[in-house]
Amino acid sequence: MNTITRCYVKSMVLHVLVIAVGFAAVMGTFEVIDKLDRIVKFSPSFSDMALFWGYITPKYFKYLLPMSVLTATLMVFGQASRYNELTAYKAAGGRLKKLFLPFIVIAILLSCVDFAVDEYVSSRFNLQANNLLFRIKNKRDRLVYKTADIWFMEKKDMIINAGLYMPDQKALYDVTAIITKEAAIAEIIKGKVCTWDGSQWVIRDGMRYELDTLKAGHFEAIPLGQFSAINVYDENELLADELPFSELRAYNKRLKAAGYNNQKSLVDMYAKLAYPFTCMVMMFLGIAISSRFKMGSGLINAGIAIVISLLYWIAYAMAISFGYSGMFGAFAAPWIVPLIFAAAGFYLYVSMPE
Question: What's the CA dihedral at 316, 320, 325, 327 to 10 degrees?
Answer without folding.
Answer: 60
